[in-house]
Design goal:
Layout lengths: L2 H7 L2 E2 L5 H6 L11 H4 L1 H13 L4 E3 L12 H21 L7 E6 L14 H17 L4 E7 L2 H14 L4 E5 L13 H10 L4 E6 L3 H14 L4 E5 L4 E4 L2 E4 L3 H14 L3 E2 L7 H11 L14 E3 L4 E3 L5 E7 L5 H8 L3 H14 L3 E4 L8 H15 L4 E4 L3 H10 L5 E6 L2 H14 L2 E5 L10 H17 L7 E4 L11 H14 L4 E5 L10 H15 L3 E4 L4 H13 L7 H7 L11 H8 L4 H7 L2 H11 L5 H21 L5 H23 L9 E6 L7 H12 L3 E4 L6 H11 L3 E5 L6 H14 L4 E5 L5 H6 L4 E3 L2 H10 L1
Parallel strand pairs: 1-10, 2-3, 3-4, 4-5, 5-6, 6-7, 7-10, 13-14, 13-20, 14-15, 15-16, 16-17, 17-18, 18-19, 19-20, 21-22, 21-23, 23-24, 24-25
Antiparallel strand pairs: 8-9, 11-12
Helix pairs in contact: 4-5, 5-6, 6-7, 8-9, 9-10, 10-11, 13-14, 13-22, 14-15, 15-16, 17-18, 18-19, 19-20, 20-21, 23-24, 23-25, 23-26, 24-26, 25-26, 26-27, 27-31, 28-29
This protein binds CO-5-methoxybenzimidazolylcobamide.
The site of CO-5-methoxybenzimidazolylcobamide (B1M) has 36 residues, from α25, α26, α27, β23 and β24.
Length: 795
């Protein structure tokens, strides 16, 4: 029986942990578990068999890290072959009579994707594709992508699975304590993105014990239209003597997972710390539970790499500013490849209230395929709003959709056969909410009925491509009132029917209505209000237009979409009654990308470098560090702590700070004196990769004439000692930024005292205090980099 058929009427039980069992069986630290398929096939088979015997329907091959980054092609082939054979052998010899399947297990690469890390998206797809092809070659029944903590990498793996097999693909993510993936995606963003890409089941594994994961599971059950997987750890690990133990017993594990099965989980198993005993307890406890049917949730939603935006009763705003049509500055920016200008438009629109951003870079003189893709990648690296990919160039659309991290809006399709036949396959493959224009080969119908008929035709055709009705929103086309006084009525009447009779969401670009008239914003905003009254779900509009925003905020307040009129009041707080457009000052306040600190907060690397060079004309490098760079990083750090900023943004801000810092360094190096003073060994301690502060210390010490031996970051105590011995430097500087790494600082000082007792040690870093520095045996605590210099000078 096919696994998806089995799943229709049954619960599906997965296996439990593999790595923890292999360690017990003698796997050494640093040894690659996947090699055991070849060297210890009997042990691997025995573990798989124990899981089947315990009631698992699915065992996952021992291939979690089997990829071409870790093994050469030839060895990878033999590992996957042996892994599938071991699992099959276990199925054949198992005493259990349940339906059995073998899943090809795929884990993360262990590297972050660009721009946050160094692995290119297509390279990642290629890495996963190799393993998938081998799984298919050796005959697995399904693919299980698991423990992914980054949405972008998950997409790369799922795309690879879909492009290289026709097998069912289950996808399970590892969530952090805050209920999101490490790089920020919440469960609904994950669900929207992965279902859009065609995952057959989605869920959560590893991370924590079942109770801890319940909120994530419950959210996935609420928002997903595919079966939900739960594969938790046996609680949290703790070290007991020299053994790692987990704090949830098999009975408690089974009870908690069963409770979530009763709520709708359809696929359950265990991860780290679970054993056949856990799976036996689970299958015994839940075998007789009636599976809850999986229901279609009928939601229209797009997603960024952090969150989903749903089309509901409250109209949404789609910012239209990243589009060269009628915008001289944008056109020039695109021609000059000034992507920072696009980023600043993205931030300003977001801060003014847009929910989604349209991205259109179409100009005859540019390579739209590469520029649209690049623009999408740059914007999604720093701005967390979902994007609407707006192009009539199908190649550019595919390239941008492929690289998009989330579920995009696709602008647009229409009733022409050729357009539907080229865009629908892309929407089906990559997922997305399609903007469908109600026109076809015969042009734009002059009647509402004509436009509705085209909408119906588009729905029928989309269904043939397997696209759901809720993934299409209709644009009933705004025409110019000054050319035809009946035009707005036709648009609104068609919109009303599409929304209220066809039951589809609607979208309009409203500004065309006022073409040729004076005070266009006034007409636009009245038309916008009329459209919202008739059921407009989203407007493609200019968030800079105060008239439009006033109409929008008032509409929401009057229709109960703005609790206690909070947003209306906040919006009106700094406005004069008469201002009609957003002023420069307001824009600056909203976007704040014109200052060095602002550029760092937003993570705009080249702009930060540019602004830093500019600022150096008026102030010195050190005061820029103190007054702009550090406060900006502090602000981002606070946001990170408060869970308002996610790791990718933190990384982008750090990159921007580094770029500014490089400019300061170059500037200072012009006046740098030659090393005339003693040697200074400098390092960020073991386990800590924060080096911005340490680099400032280096820069200043060099400028004061010290010969700095910079060992970099994550430096073990032994390396610091070796460098001191080798160079005979009398001074050492250690930096640590985390409460978890100050221990390594203490360890380093201890070793220095032991091996090089005469050396003086300066310590610094945000988490340190003078008393702590004293307690761990440092000679001097430097609150700032300059303090380190002063201390050195005092010696
Ligand atoms: Co991370 N990070 N970070 N981070 N990061 C902090 C430190 C954190 C406080 C943020 C937060 O949650 N609020 C937090 C630590 C919490 C804790 O300790 N309990 C944190 C965390 C948790 C993490 C990760 C674990 C996140 C994750 O992956 N989930 C991870 C850790 C990885 C690791 O180290 N193993 C991580 C990663 C990163 C980035 C890579 C994204 C990036 C670092 C990039 C880089 O350094 N190349 C980053 C950043 C940028 C920060 C914040 C926002 C800024 C740090 C910074 O550069 N400040 C930071 C929050 C914050 O501090 N506000 C945060 C500016 C710098 C100039 O200040 O280094 O303090 P600082 O240097 C000062 C003084 O302290 C002194 O001089 C400088 C001023 O003149 N000084 C010395 C420093 N060293 C000195 C040595 C001296 C003398 C003076 O003599 C030898």
């Amino acid at each position: 029986m096919q696994i998806l058929d089995y799943l229709k009427d049954n619960l599906l039980f997965l296996d439990g942990g593999m790595g923890t069992l292999l360690q017990k069986d003698g796997l050494l630290p640093g040894e690659k578990p996947e090699r055991w398929n070849l060297t210890n096939p009997d042990k691997i088979t025995a573990i798989h068999k124990a899981y089947y015997d315990a009631g698992s329907n699915v065992v996952s091959t021992n291939t979690f890290g089997a990829n071409i980054l870790k093994f050469d092609a030839c060895e990878l082939d033999s590992i996957v072959k042996a892994a599938v054979e071991n699992a099959r052998r276990a199925a054949e010899t198992s005493v259990s009579d349940v339906e059995k399947f073998v899943a090809l297990d795929i884990g993360p690469t262990g590297r972050l994707l660009k721009p946050f890390g160094d692995l290119d998206f297509e390279e990642a797809v290629g890495v996963f594709a190799e393993t998938v092809r081998l799984g298919v070659k050796y005959g697995v029944d399904l693919i299980l992508i698991e423990t992914m903590n980054d949405l972008y990498e998950t997409k790369a793996a799922l795309l690879a699975a879909k492009e290289n097999s026709t097998l069912p693909v289950f996808v399970s993510n590892a969530y952090s304590e805050n209920g999101c993936l490490m790089t920020g995606a919440d469960p609904e963003a994950v669900s929207a993105t992965l279902e859009g890409l065609g995952a057959d089941a989605i869920g959560v594994n590893c991370s924590f014990g079942p109770e801890h994961l319940a909120p994530v599971v419950e959210k996935l059950l609420e928002v997903s239209s595919v079966p939900v997987i739960l594969k938790p750890n046996a609680g949290l690990p703790c070290v007991c003597g020299c053994e790692t133990v987990y704090d949830v017993s098999p009975e408690n594990f089974a009870e908690s997972v069963s409770r979530l099965i009763k709520k709708g989980v359809r696929i359950a198993g265990g991860c780290c710390g679970t054993t056949p005993e856990y799976i036996k307890a689970l299958t015994d406890a839940s075998r007789d539970i009636n599976p809850i049917p999986v229901t279609e949730k009928n939601v229209t939603r797009v997603a960024s790499y952090t969150h989903a935006v749903k089309f509901e009763k409250m109209p949404l705003l789609i910012g239209e500013r990243i589009n060269p049509t009628g915008k001289k500055k944008m056109k020039a920016a695109l021609i000059e490849h000034d992507l920072d200008y696009l980023l600043s438009e993205a931030f300003t629109q977001r801060d003014l209230g847009a929910h989604i951003l349209d991205v259109n870079v179409g100009l005859p003189e540019i390579d739209e395929v590469s520029l649209l893709t690049e623009a999408v990648c740059e914007i999604q690296a720093v701005c967390d709003l979902p994007l609407q990919i707006d192009t009539s160039n199908v190649e550019a659309m595919e390239s941008a959709l492929r690289r998009y991290s989330g579920k995009a809006m696709i602008n647009s399709v229409n009733g022409k056969d050729s357009v539907m036949d080229s865009v629908f396959p892309l929407a089906k493959k990559y997922g997305g909410v399609i903007v469908a224009l109600t026109l076809d080969e015969n042009g734009i119908p002059s009647t509402a009925e004509g436009r509705v008929k085209i909408a119906e035709k588009i729905l029928r055709r989309a269904e043939e491509y397997g696209i759901k009705k809720n993934d299409i929103v209709f644009d009933t086309l705004t025409m110019t009132v000054s050319a035809d006084e009946s035009a707005p009525g036709v648009t609104l009447s068609a919109l009303d029917t599409v929304k209220n009779s066809l039951g589809c969401h609607t979208v309009l670009g409203v500004s065309n209505v006022s073409f040729g008239l004076p005070c266009r914003d006034t007409v636009n905003s009245y038309f916008f209000t009329c459209a919202m009254e008739r059921g407009l779900s989203a407007a493609i509009m200019n968030p800079y237009s105060e008239d439009m925003m006033r109409a929008y905020r008032s509409f929401n307040a009057l229709h109960g979409f703005d609790s206690m009129c909070t947003e209306y009041i906040a919006f009106m707080a700094d406005k004069t009654a008469t201002s009609a457009v957003v002023t420069g000052a307001q824009m600056q306040k909203a976007g704040d990308v014109t200052t060095l600190a602002g550029a760092i907060e937003k993570g705009m690397t080249s702009l930060a470098a540019e602004l830093c060079a500019e600022s150096l004309k008026a102030s010195d490098g050190l005061s820029l560090v103190e007054n702009e760079i550090i406060p900006a990083l502090d602000k981002v750090g606070r946001g990170f702590e408060e869970k308002k900023v996610y790791l990718p943004q933190l990384l982008m801000s750090a990159e921007a700070a580094k770029a500014a810092f490089e400019v300061i360094k170059e500037n200072l190096s012009d006046s740098r004196s030659v090393s005339t003073k003693c040697g200074f060994v400098l390092a960020t301690v073991k386990g800590d990769i924060h080096d911005i502060g340490k680099n400032i210390v280096k820069l200043l010490m060099e400028n004061y004439g010290y010969k700095v031996y910079d060992l970099g970051r994550d430096v073990p105590p032994e390396a610091v000692v070796a460098q001191v011995i080798e160079t005979g430097a009398p001074l050492v500087g250690l930096s640590a930024l985390m409460t978890t790494t100050v221990g390594a600082m203490e360890e380093t000082i201890k070793l220095l005292r032991e091996k090089t007792p005469d050396v003086r040690v300066i310590v610094g870093g945000a988490v340190l205090t003078e008393s702590y520095a004293e307690a761990i045996g440092a000679d001097f605590y430097a609150a700032t980099a300059m303090d380190a210099v002063r201390y050195a000078e005092s010696l």
